[in-house]
Specification:
With 523 residues, the protein is α/β, with parallel strands linked by helices. The chain is built from 13 helices and 27 strands. It has three domains: 164 residues, no CATH class; 85 residues, no CATH class; 224 residues, Spore Coat Polysaccharide Biosynthesis Protein SpsA, Chain A. The strands form five sheets. An eight-stranded mixed sheet has the order 17-16-15-18-24-20-25-23, with helices on both faces. The chain has a six-stranded mixed sheet with strand order 7-6-8-9-10-11. It has a five-stranded mixed sheet with strand order 1-2-3-5-4.
């Protein structure tokens, strides 16, 4: 296989790969190739995703595991107690080197699936004819080569892979490679032509190509590109247009980011392997408020979300009569909404950490995300977080604090101080998303009145987890000096007037920011 070299030494493989993308292809190509008891893997080009992070192999019976950086690469040695399919062992190595989404229902694989590295990090079980369990169904989801016989009896869901078709879906991208990691909110790079791109990436965009493409902001004459290349470039955040005349002015950061994010979102939604294997995860929005006057605004932000599997848990943080008093308002505001909702109360003497814990306990979603009662959220906000979690593999994802509305100054600022699309230690608190399982694993929300978001971020990082900050589009943080004690942030409003890239009078009205349909000035 191009980019990899394999030596079989009895029940042990020695593998050398040029880069992680080549190694991913080897993982899926080796499904069903035989049992091995260990492997020594050398990746020539590799970089830790974040600080000193190392992942877990995610399989039982690992007796030896060593991860040693070597120059620009890394060497991994693994030994397992009982021999396993080679792809399972190599996938365990991959998980130590690259973050993997938890909670994903890893499918069972059969041999000869032409996956080309897609979902290589999710190879945990390989089916060989004759190893069926007579008592328990062999698999929930089975990924198999097109035309495999008898597979329908082995699993609830069978995904037949033929070329780029996974069942009835076209899979054109690998989200662990084709993702906007490293694409900044305010960077304007070169404009390339389709001919230039095709000559450089005739065989597709592989892992070493991702970093150089961050310097490309747009490609013209895009319709002449193959569909698969358009999808890969879009997922990376490259803007595709027919003519340079369609591009915004270089200093119109909102327009540039809107084009880039809309195209990358579409590519990740339509051409990722996830929806071919399992439904998108369910999401519960957690909204805690002690300001009833903000209810209608907050509920309108929830109602506008277009993610398909949503629940809202609204916590009224005040006196014991709040739920009965405000339930009609909540019911009226959410009437006709497709999602489910629940309304609960928490006594005023309990703190914000208690309120969020109560909301999480009531939530039914696989993923939990916070929304604040005064901020603005675009319709695609939840989608952005779910997709960022998919391609980052981080335990917490959230948005960059790019857009801030300062109500006292009646000014909107574009302030991309915290770089977008990278692993980080900070995300905007009103956008945090975590799985219910990961939240429980670190002990939940801390029972503190302030810095609840920071406390959870610290817990996840201290437990060896990762935090990923995606783009800031679709979220506007509202800051008011008059809020004082009502706002848990202790940063003065004047702080947000420093280090700005652009300032606008009033509240900028834009569907991309979630501020459409509101007055441009609320002072």
């Amino acid at each position: 296989m191009p980019g990899t070299r394999v030596r079989e030494r009895g029940e042990r493989w020695e593998v050398r790969a040029d880069h992680l993308g080549a190694f991913r292809r080897l993982v899926t190509a080796s499904v069903g190739s035989g049992l091995i008891g260990g492997a020594q893997v050398r990746i020539d080009r590799w970089r830790r995703p974040h600080l000193g992070w190392t992942g877990a192999p995610g399989i039982p019976g690992v007796d030896v595991l060593s991860v040693q950086p070597k120059g620009d690469g890394v060497e991994v040695e693994i030994e397992v107690r009982d021999p396993l399919d080679a792809a399972v062992v190599l996938s365990a190595v991959l998980r130590t080197l690259q973050p993997t989404v938890t909670g994903f229902a890893a499918p069972t694989w059969t041999a000869d699936v032409p996956a080309d590295g897609v979902l290589a990090e999710q190879v945990r079980d390989v089916h060989v004819a004759g190893d069926e369990d007579p008592h328990v169904r062999r698999a929930d989801v089975l990924v198999t080569s097109d035309g495999a016989q008898g597979s329908a009896d082995l699993a609830e869901r069978v995904v037949a892979v033929s070329g780029r078709m996974w069942g009835d879906r076209e899979v054109l991208i690998d989200p662990t490679i084709h993702r906007p990691h490293g694409r900044l909110s305010d960077f304007m790079g070169q404009i390339s032509t389709a001919d230039e791109i095709v000559s450089s990436y005739r065989l597709g965009v592989d892992m070493p190509d991702v970093k150089p493409l961050r310097s490309v902001s747009a490609v013209t004459d895009a319709s002449s590109l193959p569909t698969w290349l358009r999808a890969q470039l879009s997922a990376l955040g490259v803007v595709l247009v027919e003519s340079a005349d369609e591009l915004p002015a270089l200093d119109d950061y909102l327009a540039w980011q809107t084009l880039s994010v809309n195209q990358r979102r579409h590519a990740l939604q339509e051409y990722s392997p996830w929806p071919a294997v399992q439904p998108w995860p369910t999401v519960s929005i957690l909204l805690s408020t002690h300001r009833p006057e903000r209810l209608e605004h907050a509920l309108s932000m929830i109602r506008r979300q277009d993610y398909p599997h949503l629940q809202a848990v609204i916590v009224l943080h005040g006196d014991e009569d709040d739920v009965a008093r405000h339930a009609p308002r909540v019911r009226a505001a959410l009437e006709g909404w497709d999602g489910e909702w629940a309304l609960i109360g928490v006594p005023a003497e309990r703190n914000l950490g208690h309120a969020l814990s109560a909301a999480s306990a009531r939530a039914d979603g696989e993923l939990l995300t916070k929304m604040d009662d005064d901020d603005y959220y675009a319709t695609t906000h939840v989608w952005d977080l779910v997709l960022a979690r998919m391609y980052s593999g981080a335990q917490i994802v959230g948005k960059a604090l790019d857009w801030v509305y300062l109500s006292s100054a009646d000014t909107t600022v574009f302030r991309p101080t915290y770089p977008a699309e990278r692993f980080a230690t900070f995300v905007a608190g009103g956008t945090m998303m975590i799985s219910a399982g990961d939240l429980a694993q670190v002990g939940g929300w801390r029972p503190v009145p302030r810095s609840v978001d920071r406390a959870l971020l610290d817990r996840v990082l201290e437990a060896g987890g990762l935090v990923y900050r995606t783009h800031g589009l679709g979220y506007v943080y509202v800051r008011s000096a008059a809020d004082g004690s009502a706002n848990t942030s202790q940063v003065d409003e004047e702080h947000f007037l420093t280090k700005t890239v652009a300032q606008f009078p009033g509240l900028v009205s834009s569907p991309a920011l979630g501020t459409d349909g509101v007055l441009e000035s609320s002072a």
